[in-house]
Amino acid sequence: MEPLEMYDACTAALGDFVRGAGFTDVVIGLSGGMDSSLVAVMAVDALGTDSVHGVMLPGPYSSESSLTDARALAANLGIAADTVSICEPFEAFETVLGRACGGELAGLAAENTQARCRMVCLMALSNAHGWLLLNTGNKSEAAMGYSTLYGDTAGAFAPLGGVYKTDVFAMARARNRRAVEAGDVGPIPVNVFVKPPSAELSPDQEDEKSLGIDYATLDRILVAAVEHGRAPEAVAAVLVAEGRETEATRRLVDDVLARTAANAFKRALEPPYPAAAFYE
Ligand SMILES: Nc1ncnc2c1ncn2[C@@H]1O[C@H](COP(=O)(O)OP(=O)(O)OC[C@H]2O[C@@H]([n+]3cccc(C(=O)O)c3)[C@H](O)[C@@H]2O)[C@@H](O)[C@H]1O
Ligand SMILES: Nc1ncnc2c1ncn2[C@@H]1O[C@H](COP(=O)(O)OP(=O)(O)OP(=O)(O)O)[C@@H](O)[C@H]1O
């Protein structure tokens, strides 16, 4: 499926889900990253500007440029974008959980607590205003379990849940191009395309470093193995034919597929997503 076709299919599914659930409005955590930016554009296309509520939730490791990018996106879309800091609630959790967590709230527990603080804030707004929370996860992250259970896995519907991260970027480029061709400004700021994807849950965190693989390679492995049912040896052989080292490539493919299998439990707890056959 072409990126713009994917974009339109995800947007239509989002609109159908929200209306079908009896809601008019949605709330989205705007991180300044690509996933939440594209979901916000889709929501505006599906539901209209006044029905989309963005919230910036900066934490201890959020960069100033993330806030700038989130604000620029909201301004381009003409949507409301409130700011709710998670620093105070996170510090409270550091205080109350430190002893019970072995002296201090650190490492993975500290990272995931930030994602869960954001979820608590977003769900409070959902309950207070009757806005449905949109999930911003994609299929690459879901395969690898690269998300926080009961944190950023929250939400009623995941418009990007059926597409891999490289296609999220392709859809975003296509949607911006459509705007420019119509004489409008592309809604997603240029900086969102060029900065490395990051969860910003610890200092200098970058997705591809944490995952141990770049998204382009990860997605090629997942599409070949998961979508097209190719055997691990066949998937590795394609990459080796391009000049990659044989043993390391086999280990990489096996590792990705083992992690995908091990994270089935997390995918089972994630929200529904568009059912379109994106990769046939
Ligand atoms: N088989 C099984 N069946 C049912 N539950 C199972 C389970 N195995 C583990 N669990 C449970 O799952 C827990 C581990 O899951 P979880 O708490 O989520 O933690 P975990 O998967 O270990 O960590 C989440 C990772 O995602 C990253 N992240 C978070 C947020 C956003 C993004 C992003 O860029 O989008 C990335 C974060 O930096 C971290 O590396 C275990 O403590 C256990 O309670
Ligand atoms: N500082 C933040 N302000 C508001 N929402 C946030 C913030 N950080 C994370 N979120 C929410 O949690 C989701 C997962 O965030 P994270 O940055 O960890 O992952 P991501 O997959 O790289 O997403 P994105 O590409 O949107 O940044 C985001 O898409 C967003 O909805």
From TrEMBL:
This enzyme's EC code(s): 6.3.1.5
Superkingdom of this protein's organism: Bacteria
Name of a matching Pfam family: NAD_synthase
Catalytic reaction list: deamido-NAD(+) + NH4(+) + ATP = AMP + diphosphate + NAD(+) + H(+)
Molecular functions (GO terms): ATP binding; glutaminase activity; NAD+ synthase (glutamine-hydrolyzing) activity; NAD+ synthase activity
InterPro entries the UniProt entry points to: NAD/GMP_synthase, NAD_synthase, Rossmann-like_a/b/a_fold
SUPFAM superfamilies linked to this entry: Adenine nucleotide alpha hydrolases-like
Pathway: Cofactor biosynthesis; NAD(+) biosynthesis
Keywords assigned: ATP-binding, Ligase, NAD, Nucleotide-binding
Domain NAD/GMP synthase: 9-268
A biological process term (GO) from this entry: NAD+ biosynthetic process
Family: Belongs to the NAD synthetase family.
PANTHER family, per database record: GLUTAMINE-DEPENDENT NAD(+) SYNTHETASE (PTHR23090:SF9), NH 3 /GLUTAMINE-DEPENDENT NAD + SYNTHETASE (PTHR23090)
Protein known as: NH(3)-dependent NAD(+) synthetase
Source organism (scientific name): Adlercreutzia muris
Organism placement in taxonomy: Bacteria, Bacillati, Actinomycetota, Coriobacteriia, Eggerthellales
